[in-house]
Design brief:
Elements (H helix, E strand, L loop, with lengths): L5 E4 L4 E4 L2 H15 L8 E7 L8 E8 L5 E7 L8 H12 L5 E5 L4 E7 L2 E5 L5 H4 L3
Parallel strand pairs: 5-6
Antiparallel strand pairs: 1-2, 3-4, 4-5, 6-7, 7-8
Length: about 140
């Protein structure tokens, strides 16, 4: 990887290093906007989470916000080739514990999985929800 390659992050409004994970993040930002109807001002990337046990600083890759500013979806991005295992979902759910969203998305660029909190359990969905649908979870 060429460490000098950069990409514009429209959410942070800065150029960032174009790592494999960042490529996945930027592709998802674009897809959430163009295909799911999420406006740029309704998303943030690299959202700092409150310190958890041990004081380790954590960041959510992408957070989608509702019309009132509440968190409605947390997105965890992995570099291509990383298996979307139960461990990856658990990481996203742990991050979400500080945010309270009812939708979690995990992606490695070639595979994306979506979960909605229903009846106290994370249930898989067979599609990426629209912004309007995210508001109903």
């Amino acid at each position: 990887m060429d460490a000098t390659r950069k990409i514009w992050d429209p959410l942070r409004r800065i150029e960032v290093a174009l790592t494999p994970e960042e490529e996945v993040r930027q592709a998802l930002i674009g897809f959430l906007g163009s295909e799911c109807g999420v406006l740029l001002h309704q998303m943030m990337s690299e959202v700092k989470l409150p310190d958890g046990p041990g004081g380790k600083g954590r960041r959510a890759d992408i957070v989608v916000y509702g019309r009132g500013g509440e968190c409605i979806c947390v997105v965890e991005c992995k570099r291509p080739g990383v298996e979307l295992s139960a461990v990856v979902l658990e990481q996203a759910v742990r991050y979400n514990a500080a945010l309270g969203a009812r939708c979690v998305i995990v992606s490695n660029g070639s595979s994306t999985r979506v979960y909605a909190l229903r009846d106290g359990r994370w249930q898989g969905l067979d599609h990426l929800p629209s912004y309007s649908e995210m508001l109903t979870f």
